[in-house]
Amino acid sequence: MGSSTGRDGPIQSPRAAPDDMRHPSILFLSLFATVALVASPGAATGGGGWLDRVAARPYQAASGCPAEGSVDVRPAGQPPPAARYAVCADQVGLLREAIRASAGRKRLLLVVLGASWCPWCGALQKQLASGEIARHAPGVEFDVVDLAISTLARGRPVALPSGLAAREALIGRELASRRWSFPAIVLIDPNDPRRLVARNVDDFARQSDGRYDAVRLGAMLVAAKDHIETGSAAPSEPGPIMRRLQRWWYR
What we know:
Blueprint: E1 4-5, H1 8-11, H2 24-32, E2 34-36, H3 49-55, H4 91-105, E3 108-115, H5 119-129, H6 132-135, E4 142-153, E5 156-159, H7 161-171, H8 173-176, E6 181-182, E7 184-188, E8 196-200, E9 205-206, E10 211-212, H9 214-230, E11 236-238, H10 240-249
Parallel strand pairs: 3-4
Antiparallel strand pairs: 1-6, 2-11, 3-7, 4-5, 7-8, 9-10
Helix pairs in contact: 3-4, 3-7, 4-7
């Protein structure tokens, strides 16, 4: 596998599949289909009010974390993380502050949705921090914020309620209910978070060296920026079987 994929139970929002997706032929086609993952116009409203509404929900601490969210505390008794996330922080609050900061800097915001136990999340974090991805995305100026969707509790992956809430606030309930691999990315215009592109990135993984193909990933970010700013075609995403075939091809 090119990246870690969350189990359906603890990771995804509880939502039944639409009736047409239950038909075997439709499901089969969806596994191969190429789709563009963009938020619907009604998924968010500008000005951050949509985040405030989600943040009004009571904060639920992750297992091993204090009752109050903290960016400096790590869950007690857990093994060293494969990827570094502020697991004990309120992920909605982290997202809100990142949007405000990027809006002030007039830069796009790349939101990385991942899990502390996910080795591919750690690989992407290193490549983003080194500037390797940005070097292959000319003209795309962006900040990065890492949001945790899952962590470990007693050796098993568990969902972070505030992470799920942040993802739903960012891309809407319908899009959030799709199956996402770890990590997934969302590139947004912080001045109008309705303008975004959300995508799995496991098809960019290079199995042989445990890294992402920076050239292809950078090109995708360029296309995503063009879509956000000009309304051009959004970068497409293959279905899960085609993504697996691409991981094999580019290994």
